[in-house]
Structure formats: structure tokens, C-alpha cells
Amino acid sequence: MTPKRVVVIEGDDAAPEAVRPTLALLDQLNLNIDWLTPPVGDQGKQRYGTTFPEQARRAIDESDATFFGAASGKSTAALFYLRFGKQTYANVRPVKWLSGFNSPLADPKGLDLVIVRENLEDLYLGVEGEIKDLDPLDLTSPFTREKITNMSPGRYALKVITEKGTARVTRFAFELARNRKRHGRPGKVTCATKYNMLFRSDGFFKEVAQKIAESYPDIEFETLIVDDFAHRLVAKPQQFDVAVMPNLYGDILSDMAGGLVGGLGLAPSGCYGDNYAYFEPVHGTAPDIAGQNIINPTATILSAAMMLEYLGFKPEAERIEEAVQKVYAEGRILPRDQGGSATTTEFVKAIKEYL
Ligand code: ATP
């Protein structure tokens, strides 16, 4: 069998301190994977004068997936290529409570949901500007009847919801729910938007999602206003299975959902397109704890497990998840954000022993 090719981008600040031991862990599994480490960020700058040299772009194009630490400024160009260049439109963020996770909830048992965040559109197109630039459009608020340009000086940001973008991410959510149903989950998709205020943009997201739902009669479907979703997520997160939503809501609420099980150190993610995927923890680069060997690598390790499943190494992915579960259930060696005192190295060593 030809080996799979995976690009590794360690990322910035504390991220490499989680990525390196995770790779060492994967090494134990004798996977048929060629790891590519093109120069990105500082390394790219030093060798080629740019944080995202052509060599790195080519390595990504020739690979099956990328494993990413987390980016601050230095690796962002690579991240943008992975997202927009490779059209990875579905950001999948599983939130599952495991025994031993330091959840703030009184009863986190049974919490097992996935937020599927649209990854390429909405307010994240980055089109912002001065209100006065909208002059030629002669826009008026339907609520205040005021001319938008009368509100100048000020700024605007463009929110874009397309039929294609919404349909593909919703379909992805339904397929995921169907797959999870085969493994004992209820088979339910919740669509969360602000359709009661943003009739034409979020309302359209909901409308397109409802259309897609018609092709999945075996999957329960509900639409919620996103603020109601947020409330329910805190009050009774166990009611959710798969939740699909536009970019911004997904970004915010998946961090919040991560907080429900015990923090960002535990939340993995994968960004999937039709032909490519990359995997990274939900958290950022944790610059405040860089260099201390105390970052919780669980989110990075679980992201690696998601990647192995994507690449066709499901038994190995399960072995990793089981090893993580055992270390937490035992509760003897835990990272600091989970109430323990283990360093990153000690914690990964404990997982390695169970592997
Ligand atoms: P971004 O904007 O990229 O999400 P950020 O700086 O806002 O980045 P994080 O880097 O995620 O956010 O950090 C938020 C807080 O959570 C920091 O105090 C950080 O140390 C902590 N944190 C994040 N990830 C971890 C982790 N894996 N282990 C321990 N603490 C973490």
C-alpha cells in the first residue's frame, strides 16, 4: 500500500509543545505515513524570506492531510491556504465528556455532541470597510429606516451566506449524524442561526438546511435561534447530537462547548473539504504558557486521532482514544488545566504506556 502523506505544521508559541509529543506517540503505532515538514512561519522566513514559501504550498498540495498545531501571526498564511485554498468547508468540532475531564457541569455524563461550523463564509470573508464606501449602494436599515451612510463615520463587515456553501456543510452534518447513528447516537441535526433578525442571510442558511433535511428522513432535524441554542447548550447539552451553523456562531459556541467538558485543552477539530482535510486543536497558541511544558496536549492528540480515522487508520485512532480515556478515568496523571500537576511530557508518557 502506498503510504499516506501528511504535512506537519507545528504552529506557534506553545503549540509545538503539544504537537511534538503527539507525533512521538503516533510513532508507536507504526503507521504507514510519510511525514512532511516543510518550512512554515519563522523557519520559512529564515530559509526563504517568507512565512509560507512555495515549497510548503506544494507539500500541502501533494499530501493527503495536514496536521496543524495552532497559528498566531507567523503561520497564518499557511492556515489560510489550508482553509480557503483547499476549500475545507466543514469545521468539525466534537465535544465529548470523558470520565476524569474537569467539567464545570454538575452532571456532564452523556455529553457527546459535534459542532459543524461552516468554515469559509459568513463574516469571515474578511470584507470590511468604511461605511461611507457603501454610498453608491444607497442602503437603508429596514428597522430604523435610516440611511446607512448617515451613520458614518463607522465601519461595516460583510456577512455572506451562499446556497452552495450552506448546502455542502449541511449535507456534511447529516452524513455525520447518520454515521454516528450507526454507532448508537440518536441521529439528530440541529441548525442554529439568527433567522428571526437576519431574515435574508441566516434565514437563507436555515431554508437551505431545511431543503437538505428532506433527503435525510432517517435523521431528526430541528432549527433553533442561535441564542436559544446557546442557552440549551449550557442548560442541557446532552440533548444535542450534531449541530450545524454559520462560521461566527460555530467559532464562538464550539469554544463554549469545549468549556463545558473541561476546557480548550480537551477540544479537537478537523476541517474537511471534498478532497482534503486538516486537523488542529480548537485552542489557539496559548502564548501565556509557552516554554513551560505544561500545555495540555489532549486536544492535539484527539485531533490526531480524527486525522487517523480520516486517513483510514480507524483501529489506531480508536486505540489512541482509548488510551486517553484510560489516563483520564484513572485520574492519577493529569495536566494542570485538569486539576493535576503533570507536565506535558509526563502526561503523554502515561498515554504511551496505555498504548
Ligand atoms: P486564538 O485567538 O487563536 O483562539 P487565544 O490566545 O485567544 O488564541 P488560546 O491560545 O486558546 O486563546 O488560549 C486561551 C487560554 O486558554 C490561555 O490562557 C491558554 O493558556 C489556555 N489554553 C489554551 N489551550 C490550552 C491547552 N491546550 N492547555 C492548557 N491551557 C490552554
Overview of the molecule:
This protein has eleven helices and twelve strands. The chain has 355 residues and is α/β, with parallel strands linked by helices. It folds into three domains: 185 residues, Isopropylmalate Dehydrogenase (3-Layer(aba) Sandwich), CATH 3.40.718.10; 120 residues, Rossmann fold, CATH 3.40.50; 36 residues, no CATH class. Strands 2-1-3-12-11-4-5-10-8-9 form a ten-stranded mixed beta sheet, sandwiched between helices. Strands 6-7 form a two-stranded antiparallel sheet. The relative contact order is 0.17. The structure holds adenosine-5'-triphosphate. Adenosine-5'-triphosphate (ATP) binds next to loops. The site of adenosine-5'-triphosphate has 12 residues, from loops.
Brief sketch in words of this structure:
This protein is α/β, with parallel strands linked by helices and 355 residues long. It has helices at 15-27, 42-48, 54-61, 76-85, 163-182, 202-213, 226-235, 247-261, 298-311, 314-330, 344-354, and strands spanning 4-9, 33-36, 65-68, 90-96, 112-118, 128-130, 155-157, 188-193, 220-225, 242-245, 270-272, 277-279.
What is the element layout, followed by pairings?
Blueprint: E1 4-9, H1 15-27, E2 33-36, H2 42-48, H3 54-61, E3 65-68, H4 76-85, E4 90-96, E5 112-118, E6 128-130, E7 155-157, H5 163-182, E8 188-193, H6 202-213, E9 220-225, H7 226-235, E10 242-245, H8 247-261, E11 270-272, E12 277-279, H9 298-311, H10 314-330, H11 344-354
Parallel strand pairs: 1-2, 1-3, 3-12, 5-10, 8-9, 8-10
Antiparallel strand pairs: 4-5, 4-11, 6-7, 11-12
Helix pairs in contact: 1-9, 1-11, 5-6, 7-8, 9-10, 10-11
Bound molecules: adenosine-5'-triphosphate (ATP).
